[in-house]
Amino acid sequence: MAKVLIAAGGTGGHIYPALAIADAFKAHPELTVEFVGTAHGLENRIIPPKGYKVHHLPVGRLNSNVPLSERLKTVLLLPWAFVKSAFLLRRERPVFVLGVGGHASGPLLLMASLLRYRSAIWEPNAMPGLANRILSRYVDECWVVFDEARRHLRGGKMHLAGMPVRKEIENTALALRPSEKFRLLIFGGSQGARGINNTTVEMIKADPAWARGFKIVHQTGPVDYARIKEAYGGLLQSHDIDLREYLHDMGDQYAAADLVVCRSGTGTLSELAACGKAAVLIPFPFASDDHQRKNAESLVSKGAAQMIIQKDLSPRSLRGEIDRLRNHPEELKRMAQEIRSFHHPRAAETLVEEFVERIQSDASS
Fold it and tell me: Which fold has domain 2-163+346-364?
């Protein structure tokens, strides 16, 4: 059976779209999919339970926002990562190698290109990461979600692509749940966001009477959960606040929300687009190449979202934006319509159909 290798890891924004792509390959039983990541990454908790094997490469981060000691260690390990990539490719003999981000993507895709395996990168951010900026010169094709990414990439053929979304989001989030109260969904990704968590608690505690007018679902992530629960104190009993460590029902939560407050990683943005949800975006200020801010700016420029950058985030600024949007339902509706235009139904299936066409063309030539 022919094999496809997908390099993905590090964050849910890379892993979940990669899983959606892998699942779409199931429509082609002549192909099997395996993943390539690192031994210490989040991919090892998320991917194997979905039934996919993960190969490991010894590689770390090189971005300028990580400690110098980590970057030096990564540089020292790179030759071994390239050697292991070459051995892996020679052993597995893939008919297609796809990089969607994560530390393993760089050495695997570069070696795949040099060894003349069919290769492509998929770049979900408006500002491509360092690895993809380099790889774009070597791979056969580059697929981008944001048109702005094109000017930062070189070489391979450029194509616009949709953002694959988890089926449980795409299938459940469009059924609206009416509520008497204005519903806020506040989260910072699967790991949470301390800046958003702290500001939300301070905003609510500053004026508990104001907060009674809302149904609030607040996901903290595992690190902050106990601390934030203690900070809320009796407000969790006296107010309509649903505090969660993790949200296992994201489709339902998106469907019920009138307004979302969140980070602006591409995975989150794709889900907002699939659900057609107005959002206040608070980009993570230490994301590599400041890509979360550039993602948010792309949406804001098109009237599809609002943004508060981290240094301007305060209980007052967040409450002001929430109140403004709550008092202007027509703007909420317009934002929801604009962000919905970024969604491409069956994006994973469409990508895979393109990939399979390339694979079949290579096989027949």
Answer: Rossmann fold (3.40.50)
